[in-house]
Automatic annotation (TrEMBL):
Residues 1-16 form the signal peptide. Keywords: Oxidoreductase, Signal. Residues 2-336 form the FAD dependent oxidoreductase domain. GO terms for cellular component: cytoplasm. PANTHER family: GLYCINE OXIDASE, SARCOSINE DEHYDROGENASE-RELATED. It comes from Mangrovactinospora gilvigrisea. GO terms for molecular function: oxidoreductase activity. This is FAD dependent oxidoreductase domain-containing protein. Pfam families: DAO. InterPro entries: FAD-dep_OxRdtase (IPR006076), FAD/NAD-bd_sf (IPR036188). Residues 351-363 have a biased composition (Basic and acidic residues). Residues 341-371 are annotated as: Disordered.
Amino acid sequence: MRIAVCGTGILGAALAARLAGRAAVTLLDAAPRPGTAATRGSFAWTNSNDKGPRAYHDLNTAGMRAWRALAPQLGGAAWYRPVGNLEWAGDADARAALYARVQRLRSWGYAARLVGRREALGIEPSLSLPEDVTEAAWFPEEGYLLTGPLMERLLARAASHGARLRLGAEGAVRAVEETAQGVAVGTAAGEPVAADLAVLCAGTGTPALAGIPFLLPEAESAALTVTAGPAAGPLGRVVHAPGISLRPAAGRDVHLEDGDAADRPDEHAAALLARARRILPELEKAEVRGHAVCVRPLPVDGHPVVGPLPGAPRRYALVTHSGVTLGARLAELAAREILSGDPSPELAPYRPDRFRAPRDRSAPPRPSSAP
């Protein structure tokens, strides 16, 4: 079976690593380097922290387990960081919502508990907690992935089993057309790639290839990410504080994120570092090393889009907002059903046919829960 994987983010790389050796895989991307759109700039937090309903929560916990299972096989010491996540709220309403979330997650069997101020500082000694913070939420099984080293290993595994990588003009997909023999993937280089199936996992570019408008506008899913350093001492955990998220990066650097500061990134990068210094004094002499606006695809209902397109079974969509958490599990499920032809019951709620066809101009529903 010949499979064209259109997109080399974490979903495309994880899927190629699963398929290669059992199918003839060609990876295509317009970027000069795989994963340069959302994957490498992502905060890369692995979690199922506020992801409802229950079936979607369970899919995300399965995603966390899938990375844990893959780590020993794929040099996990270089990229797998299950260090836990510490979170606190800034006002009474936010605290009530956080405490209710902890209770709901505990009722679902998820590792979550409230800890007092002293224990929170024991979990992450580098923090300077605001005086009014008496409790925090601790999620010990969450963490993050270093997506650069992970991508290298996923693509190396795929290549070792015969996968081909086409980047730049040769990988810039312009159209995917079904033919009598399968599909023809047209590229900017002119010569189409012939395949039996095209997997569309091009992030925010996927709807254009699929012909179905299932994503919210990019402005609604953009976040400012900043790398700052060096820190005087190590940050050990993922931290979520009001208005800012932090996690360790390479060496003594720290990765910062703010989902509400994607406009005017140059100005906001310095402001984000100043905000981080107030809770992490180890950053007092740190500088902004780099920043980016990370735009992840956000389906209109917040949930993944996975499976054959309506009326176009040789085009298979694979898109999600939570690509880092879900990447390994979605790749496993998608590869299994692509190769076997047997639909996965676990993917049934996420099929593309739940969205209106392009000729239906009525507005799609808004997300009902966090992705």
